[in-house]
Amino acid sequence: MSETFTLAAATPAKVSAAVATPSYPTMRGSETDSRRIVDPASASAYRLRHVLLQDDIAAEEVMDLLKKGKLLFTEVARTFSSCEGTREKDGEVGWLDFANYDAPDHPLDPCLPLNVRSLLCNPDADSDSDQVKMKPGDITKIKSTRGIHLIQLVDVMVNVNNKTKKRYRAKGNTWETAVDPSNRNQKQLYYSMDTMGCQMNTADSERMKGQLESLNILPLPPSSPSTKADVVVLNTCSIRDHAEQKVYSYIGPHAKRKREGEAVSIVVAGCVAEQEGENLLRRCPEVDLVLGPQYANRLGDLLEDVSNGNQVVATEPEFIVEDVTKPKRDSKTCAWVNIIYGCNERCAFCIVPSTRGVEQSRTAESILEECRNLVADGFKEITLLGQNIDAYGRDLSPKRKFSDLLTMVGEIEHLERVRFVTSHPRYMSDNVVDAVAENPSICNSFHIPFQSGNDKVLREMGRGHSVAKYLKIIERIRKRMPEAGITADVIVGFPGETEEEFSDTLKLMEEVKFDNVNTAAYSPRPNTPAAEWDNQVSEIEKNDRLQRINRLNLKHAKERRSRMVGRTEKILVESRNIKNPVQVMGRTEHGYVVYFEGDIQELEGGLVDVKITASSTYSLTGERALL
Ligand code: SAM
Ligand code: F3S
């Protein structure tokens, strides 16, 4: 359990400080197969698209174009398919139910004959076929008497209850849950949601809010304290120990309310939920639902279980279904769009792969559909999200490339700005840099963590890249886009880091001069290799390095912003300046925050020319330019 996790307990002194390269298993790239998490036992239906072609050569050519990302499945269906029933619907077949796939006169007979359906649905149909191992996004080729079917698995319906652990909570005790139907009938329910951590969590929270509101559970009015909420959701982060410890102090007052007889439902979501699982219920028995990040789309279903008197733990590795409910977006202008969930890397310090699971790319079709719908709803900026965004598509069959997807999103009409996070220096390709340089709507802005400026430390971290490789990427960006904004993440005091190795990190920062670096002192995390090494750097040393690196970061951030004074920049207006209501807040394409006087009603979502008049460490001030 994390609360009893101490450095001493986690340091069995097995690994000596002299060992240069740690010998833990890596799970990079295709070595980790996310097909394994599509468990046929809990799947009940597949949603499919298909294309019917008449000969093998055409099928091979089309597969090749799909593999190279030159065509989308939906385009192939519209252009080449000889299936009249589905051609006009972008190849959409609909749901194929496992239970009755072999029924006589099946409604899908006209497009998918029995032999095709049985290969897809019956795990015993053909032990050599790989169809049963399909996962959303994959495309497979199956022959029938009608021709050659290219079939894309779009989504899987899973009985999520089979994957959760439940504990029945006896009725009649004082720990009532607010989502009990009797409580719901009596009054309007309100939720509060607090979000810690990264953009992934922010995006997950928006999805969970959407689901709660579709159940008619409304957001608590801003003036009410969270202790007035009937459903309390805490979306947690476990990237560093202090983030994790906040969880328990947050739950405290709500657990007390519950013990005192208030009907309140307590949900702990996010990475601490995944990491702690049932332990959370042991430590806080008042909690109703422990929900790992892979279940963020299923909050509604799982609350139903809670309303039946259960305490539920949903942390089993799970493939992530496409959204059925609309997220409730925090902004009307800027939206997050997940393109790949999870991470297959094994950075020796990082807990994310064990809390967010293996990589799962969404199909390009569903990503583009979501982006187009956002534009139709008036959104102007989209940020594509992935823990390692450059890994996008390597888990799909056929594989896809992130640079191709980025270009496709960048070409969406009326979408003003596209951003993306997070790039991994090991995988980031020149094609990505080129796509940004060549597409005017993709912001010249990059977030590329470097973690350390020393090759030995990078090797021990298991990052898979050198300092030289990192600098080469920066050089290419600056050559093609000299003004590009570049931000990064770094860790100081990684086990074994010497003063000299730390000074290499400062040197790298001097060389690049970042617009901002998220700095962190290394925090040992449970179930990560580096936490067990016996060469931990002392807390005093880590704090000292953190302060020194923060000073350098502030200096560079200030210098970088000061060069903007006197220039006129296009600012996408996002909100009012909460500290000064006569001002609005927006960003330059590099990502710099800019404040200027203006009316938010008039300007929100607009691109405004602003002359920059002053700069500070993390923001700029300006005035509307008279052109
Ligand atoms: N893949 C994303 C990325 O590269 O930014 C997300 C990783 S994590 C959510 C964000 C950052 O947290 C990492 O880049 C790393 O600098 C920092 N981090 C991760 N584990 C850490 C640890 N154990 N101690 C301190 N910082 C950590
Ligand atoms: Fe993945 Fe964490 Fe490394 S999210 S890329 S294991 S920093």
Automatic annotation (TrEMBL):
UniProt domain MTTase N-terminal: residue ranges: 189-308
Leader sequence residues: none
GO molecular function: 4 iron, 4 sulfur cluster binding; metal ion binding; methylthiotransferase activity; peptidyl-prolyl cis-trans isomerase activity
SUPFAM superfamilies the record matches: FKBP-like, Radical SAM enzymes
SMART domains recorded: Elp3
Annotated TRAM domain residues: 562-626
CDD domains in the record: Radical_SAM
Protein name: tRNA-2-methylthio-N(6)-dimethylallyladenosine synthase
